[in-house]
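Last lecture ended with a question: if I hand you only a sequence, what can you say about the shape of the protein? Today we answer it with a concrete record. The protein is Inositol 1,4,5-trisphosphate receptor-interacting protein. Below, first the input exactly as provided, then the predicted structure, then a couple of comments.
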Amino acid sequence: MPVGLFRVCLLVITAIVNHPLFFPKENGTVPENTEEIIQKMKEREESLRLEQLRLEQEIADQEATQKALEKAAVVVEESKEERVRWDMWTALSMVIFLLIELWRQDFQEGNWQDTGGEEDDMAVLGKAFKGVAFPDKAVLASFYEKRILGTTADMARMREMVEGFADDLLEALRSVCNRDADMEVEDCMGVGSMYENWRVRKPFVCDLIVPFAPPEPYCFCCQTWCSGDSFPPDEQGYGTIKVCRADEDATGCICDKTKLGEDMLCLLHSQVSSTRPSSEMEDLLCFKNTQYLDADQVMKWFQIAVTKAWNRISHKYEFDLSFSLLDSPGALKIKFRSGKSIAFNLTPVVQYENSDVYFISHFPRSNLAADTPSSTRWFLTFAVYERRFIQLVSKTLPANACHVSCLQILSFLHGKQCSLTGPSGLTNYHLKTVLLHLLQARPSQDWAPEKLEARLQDMLKFLEKCLHEKKLYHFFIGNGKVPAELGFPIIFQRAEPLNLFRPFVLRRDIYRKMVDTFHEMLRNMSALINEYTVHIPLAHTNGIRKEPH
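The predicted structure:
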């Protein structure tokens, strides 16, 4: 601005100096062409006036621009301060919300352990227990002796027969397979309710898992959802199995990721071994054009191999063997000439590293893995550790402890209710998970045989709470209190807890059916128990209620 004022003053002074009246007439001589000079002076004056107007306009524009910039700076500064204040309040609100959520979860997870005294158990039962006549100790003891023990007496004999035949069948399977090209089958292991001694409903079905491994020089490289790989939330509990060469890392050699140049070779891999034909990987039961093991291909191979093995040894036995269920490829049935039959499941699995956690291709007679995302996604089963945990805890419990009796009674009641109102999303595995949590939370003396009634109420209360919150956590995954004697892999203990009820959160129809079945089971409990207790009067029984369809 000072420069502009200086220029205006200079123009004014120049105009005054050049004005003709500035010099007196007597001191100079008037030129002859006076009119021409006057015309030029007018033109000069006009140009100076225009220049002055232009400079004034320029100065005004500069002042306006300066004011606009100053105003914009003030607005930006105010917006920054406002945003900083807003970000601070947002961050503070999020912190408060997270603290409340963490407190709520901790309270909910720890609240069920505080069960109070036995005399107050009925007083703290939930809304579902209002109006329910719970059987007394005498009725429960009589029911268990006459209904449960009577049906489970021949389980040991059946297990022995099935295991002996399965071993013979797998030995024949190894003989019909090509040792250089086919999968190598190991010895089978018994898991589930038949081997944990709590199955009560007929027909009895033995569950056997058969680990297998690829032929040399290949090996399985397993990846789980909690190993750092990207798995969506609905695939928690799953993993993938990659077929690799024994001298190859699961992530691949660096020569596959770096251009070595035309005159350089990898010392570990040649050009011949760096790429494997698609047909070779399909022979190894991989998904098309990938190195990932395909569960569907494995089950097809296993069915064909079992059929060949049975054809080799069938002349030794006086019964027939067949696949009993189309949707369960490993479901087998032994049919005797007398008309009797024995069912069992033979399911191929893959061992996770050097642990007793296994990748399982499918779950027989279960909806735990009904919605498998892909045939290359394998569900992890912890059945071996579950069996070991029950055996380990049983050693510390009083003689004739009631923990298995509680699970048997609850499983029986649930099965009877499902036969009346149809199946629901609630399974025996959910009931066993409830027992595992209570076994860890309750002291050993609480499982004495005379406390059967109180512990059965605890299981029902815990299950009601889980149904209300839609949260039943897997016992092993995310549980840092697993006994060290089990040798359980630490990676699963440090993982996020796995909610077994998560699939029912978005499927409200199945969840509603599950809750209704539970409530109907509570209302029918006394009637169902008294029905199988012949010498106890049918007191407080108004008949079995059936859910309307």
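Comments.
1. The first strand starts at residue 184 and ends at 185.
2. Residues 193 and 199 are 5 Å apart (CA to CA).
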